[in-house]
UniProtKB/TrEMBL annotation:
Leader peptide range in chain numbering: 1-17
SUPFAM superfamilies per the UniProt record, alphabetical: Fibronectin type III
Coiled coil: none
Stored PANTHER family: INTERFERON/INTERLEUKIN RECEPTOR, PTHR20859:SF91
Species this chain originates from: Perca flavescens
Record-given protein name: Fibronectin type-III domain-containing protein
Residues that span the membrane, as ranges: 213-235
Database matches in InterPro entries: FN3_dom (IPR003961), FN3_sf (IPR036116), Ig-like_fold (IPR013783), Type-II_Cytokine-TF_Rcpt (IPR050650)
Pfam families: Tissue_fac
Amino acid sequence: MLFRVLFILVVVQALSASPPAPQNVHVDNWLLTWTPAAEEGDTTYTVEYSSFDSFVWKNVTSCVHKSSNSCNVTSTKAEDEHGCVRLRVQAERHGLTSTPVEVCSRHGDSCTPYFSLMPGPGSLTVHLSRNHSLARDYADHAKHRVYYGKEGESLLYAKYEDALASVTIPELQEGQRYCVQVQNIYFGKCVGLPTCPQCVLIPESKKDSKPTVILAVGLMMVLVLLIPVIAYFLICKPERIKEWLRPPYELPEDFLEPFPDHHLAISSSSPTEECWNVITSISPQELST
Ligand SMILES: *[C@@H]1O[C@H](CO)[C@@H](O)[C@H](O)[C@H]1NC(C)=O
Ligand SMILES: *[C@@H]1O[C@H](CO)[C@@H](O)[C@H](O)[C@H]1NC(C)=O
Ligand SMILES: *[C@@H]1O[C@H](CO)[C@@H](O)[C@H](O)[C@H]1NC(C)=O
C-alpha cells in the first residue's frame, strides 16, 4: 500500500516537473538545431523570435510544438530589413515549459558580427569586422557587445565590453581557456543573433620568467666557485691578504742598522707555503741565540 502511494507520488512529481531546457542550440545558415536534454517522447519544442524594434517574443509559426530537433527559421529573416532577429527555444511537456534558451549563430551573417580571436600573454584581442549592414546604416550607434569568460561559464549577459571596432581584454588568467561571444547592439539594445562561443587558450608570458631563471643559475654558480676560493685564502693564506691590504711603503735603507740580531730573526721566519701561523714560529730560544 505504502509502496503504491510512493510510486504514484513519484509519477505525479515527474509529470508536474518542467522539462529540461534544450542544449547546444544554434543556427547554421538559418537552420536551427538543438539537442534534446532528455529522451522524452512527449516533449516538444517551440521557437520564438524578437525583431529589431520590438521587445516582445512571438512564435515562429512553422516552429511551434516541434517534436523533431531542428526547424527552418529562414522566414524570420524577412521580419527585419537587416535580418536582425533574436531567437530562443523552449521545451514543453504536459503544459509546462522549460526556461528559454537564446539561439547563437555559428557564422557571421547580415546581423551577426564576424570576429576572430588573437590571444596574447594575459590578454585577448577580439578583431571585429564592421562590414555588416547595421554598421553601414547606423554608423556609430551600432556597436558590438563582446561577452567573455572562462570556458564552461555562462557567457551571455555576464562580463562584457562594448566596442565600436576591435577590442583587447586585459588582465586574463594565463594558461586558462577563455570564450567569447559577440552580439550587435543598437543604442544599448541587443539586436540580432549573438555568435556562438569561440574559445582560446591564453598563453603564459615567457619574457619575464626566462631571464630570471638564467640570472639565478648564474649567481648560484658564481657563489659555488667563489666560496671555496675565499675560504682557502681566509684559512690558509691570511698573510697574503695582509700583504694585499698593506699600503705601499718603502722602509728607509738604515732602518734596521742598529739591530742586526733582530734582522736575522725576521729573515728566518720568512713566510712559507705551509698552512700555519707565522707569529708562533718565532720561539724565545731563537731570539736569544
Ligand atoms: C505560441 O505558441 C504557444 C504554444 O503553442 C502558445 O501557447 C502561445 O499562446 C503562442 N503565443 C502566441 C503569441 O501566439
Ligand atoms: C529553408 O526554407 C527556405 C524557404 O523558406 C529554403 O529556401 C531553404 O532551402 C530551407 N533551408 C533548409 C536548410 O532546408
Ligand atoms: C565581412 O568580413 C568577413 C571577414 O572579415 C567576410 O568573411 C565576409 O564575407 C564579409 N561580409 C561582407 C558582407 O562583406
